[in-house]
Amino acid sequence: MSAKILIVDDDPGIRRLLSKFLEREGFITLQAEDGLEGVEMAKKEEPALIVLDVVMPRMDGLTAARLIKFYKPLSEVPIVFLTAKDADKEIELAQEARAEAYITKPFDIRQVIQVIKDLIG
Length: 121
Fold this sequence. Notes:
Elements: E1 4-8, H1 12-24, E2 28-32, H2 35-45, E3 49-52, H3 61-70, E4 79-83, H4 88-96, E5 101-104, H5 109-120
Parallel strand pairs: 1-2, 1-3, 3-4, 4-5
Helix pairs in contact: 2-3
């Protein structure tokens, strides 16, 4: 499996952790540190799936998800939100942004990997 996964999170530790485990599973990983950089990288690299934090500087994950889904070549790319926020309102907003999954921090890395595998087959 060599699908490209874009990880967008302002926490470098989380980006490194996810990259390490996903690469062990055979994925290629790309990293961005905020929503703005994530949108630009998604358009350039066209990943198979995007993992997005919600709360980030410059552009939050919900706005980034909407921009990504609005961009025709990326409209079908699955988005997994990974966030410390677990309020019902946040989940509702994630669904409105057409995210395919929503996982709260702290997370089980095996769960994240399984969700990704399920979404990209």
